[in-house]
């Protein structure tokens, strides 16, 4: 498979009726809806992912949703993948951000469909990569709303960035509000208020999300569910599994069976 797609998660899910709690990804989410609807929302707006629409979430955007008979495909390209392609097109290394969040563009839909179809059919690498570049370059050329300088995630949100780095440096720690607030030189009251205002999640939800994102990556790399859950700080595997399904809409055992999920 193309090196561009190394360690990138794919999903091909039919008839979902799951609710998704507030969460975010450090990657992009790009997907197609074939049937049903996902009613999704973030701190700015609500929107429906309907039949034959393209759905996009930018890295770090908090979102949630409710699905009804939702059949869709998703993949989660990294910031590096999108930035490198942007640089190839414009000779400028920047991170593209896209209009929220539904794109009604039939040409783009078909190009993404062709990419997903060739990927799931395990076609020749050159065909998959050609379809990938064709689809993502069309997305970049038609749907960018703004760009940012190439920096780490949350670089423009100092409190979030410092907290993100602090948590990731010791992901299995039992964090306290005292720890988190003193790390950014704030009182607990001001830390809670500013954190939720800037990010849209409580620190506790943020920590759970980070642990689940990390565990997701470990399971894709072949770690057992128990190994992944303990390594990121979950001492109770049932608690880990419940949260995993709540955030991602499928269980860690489904991910373990096939890192490119086909349900």
UniProtKB/TrEMBL annotation:
The name this protein goes by in its record: AraC family transcriptional regulator
A molecular function GO annotation: sequence-specific DNA binding
Lineage: Bacteria, Pseudomonadati, Campylobacterota, Epsilonproteobacteria, Campylobacterales
Keywords: DNA-binding, Transcription, Transcription regulation
One family name in Pfam for this protein: HTH_18
Cited PANTHER family: HTH-TYPE TRANSCRIPTIONAL ACTIVATOR RHAS-RELATED (PTHR46796), TRANSCRIPTIONAL REGULATORY PROTEIN (PTHR46796:SF2)
Provenance organism: Poseidonibacter parvus
HTH araC/xylS-type domain ranges (all copies): 161-258
Classification via InterPro entries: AraC-bd, AraC_XylS_family_regulators, Homeodomain-like_sf, HTH-like, HTH_AraC, Tscrpt_reg_AraC-type_HTH
SUPFAM superfamilies hit by this protein: Homeodomain-like, Regulatory protein AraC
């Amino acid at each position: 498979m193309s090196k561009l797609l190394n360690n990138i998660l794919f999903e091909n899910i039919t008839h979902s009726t799951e609710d998704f709690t507030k969460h975010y990804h450090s990657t992009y989410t790009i997907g197609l809806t074939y049937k049903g609807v996902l009613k999704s929302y973030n701190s700015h707006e609500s929107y429906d992912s309907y039949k034959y629409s393209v759905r996009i979430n930018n890295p770090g955007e908090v979102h949630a949703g409710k699905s009804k008979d939702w059949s869709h495909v998703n993949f989660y390209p990294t910031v590096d993948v999108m930035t490198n392609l942007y640089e190839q097109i414009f000779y400028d290394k920047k991170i593209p951000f896209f209009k929220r969040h539904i794109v009604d563009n039939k040409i783009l839909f078909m190009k993404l469909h062709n990419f997903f179809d060739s990927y799931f059919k395990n076609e020749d690498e050159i065909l998959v990569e050609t379809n990938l570049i064709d689809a993502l370059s069309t997305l970049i050329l038609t749907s960018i709303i703004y760009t940012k300088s190439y920096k780490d995630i949350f670089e423009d949100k100092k409190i979030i960035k410092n907290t993100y780095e602090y948590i990731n440096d010791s992901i299995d720690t039992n964090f306290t509000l005292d720890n988190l607030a003193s790390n950014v030189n704030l009182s607990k009251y001001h830390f809670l208020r500013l954190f939720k205002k800037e990010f849209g999640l409580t620190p506790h939800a943020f920590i759970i999300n980070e642990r689940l994102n990390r565990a997701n990556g470990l399971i894709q790399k072949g770690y057992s569910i128990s190994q992944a859950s303990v390594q990121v700080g979950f001492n109770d595997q049932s608690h880990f599994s419940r949260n995993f399904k709540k955030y991602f809409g499928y269980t860690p055992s489904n991910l373990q069976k096939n890192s490119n999920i086909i349900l």
